[in-house]
Design brief:
Length: 210
């Protein structure tokens, strides 16, 4: 296998396009180019080409993993899942996750805290935070610590009621608002407490909601 051409400049993702004499091409990050001493006209034995291709795929998974964690908080399990969905092999996805974890760039405990704090800032209840932890594949061993200091949400619920109902409302409006609060992760008890403070004219029948 012979290298016909190496692009002078990298693409937006930082990869150099390497064209081969069979018409195919590889996109390599600088480190891989340097590790294999890639240049135009270089001849590659089959075994070396296989190592180059494997290294390129491994580096692709690592760099994709870096982009993902730079954009959002993810757990190890969630990152591995997303890498595989993007087309990376399971082996390379696992290696990329481990590579980031070894550099303290991926911490499920810290990610759990970030997810819960984000839910709190949005006025969500504990149930919504637990759902977020589950969806992000945070191991359950970190849930209790992350949720331990979840603040009382009465004020947040009161603000939501005021924004949705104001001073004049009908029973159908109340039902929709309660349903929305439950979807936001607030418990029946928390909603009922806030409703009693919000208005004395609430006809609360728990079995009618949810």
């Amino acid at each position: 296998m012979r290298i016909e051409k190496v692009a002078a400049q990298p693409d937006r993702a930082g990869r150099y396009t390497v064209k081969l004499d069979d018409g195919s091409s590889l996109r390599l990050y600088r480190q891989t180019v340097e590790d294999f001493a890639i240049y135009s006209g270089k001849e590659l034995e089959e075994a070396e080409f296989d190592r180059l291709r494997a290294a390129a795929e491994e580096m692709s998974a690592k760099m994709r993993a870096v982009r993902i964690i730079s954009a959002s908080s993810v757990s190890k399990g969630d990152l591995e899942r997303r890498l595989i969905q993007k087309g990376e092999s399971k082996q390379n996805a696992c290696q990329a996750v481990q590579w980031l974890a070894e550099r303290s760039l991926l911490d499920d405990r810290a990610t759990a805290q970030q997810i819960v704090q984000n839910c709190i800032s949005k006025g969500y209840g504990p149930a919504r935070a637990k759902q977020a932890l589950y969806e992000k594949r945070i191991p359950k061993e970190y849930w209790d610590d992350a949720l331990a200091d979840y603040p009382d949400q009465t004020e947040e619920i009161m603000n939501f009621l005021q924004a949705k109902l104001g001073s004049h409302w009908e029973q159908k409006d109340l039902r929709r608002t309660i349903d929305a609060l439950l979807r936001r992760g607030h418990s029946y008890g928390a909603v009922r407490k806030a409703l009693n403070m919000f208005s004395e004219n609430v006809d609360w029948e728990e079995e009618n909601y949810g």
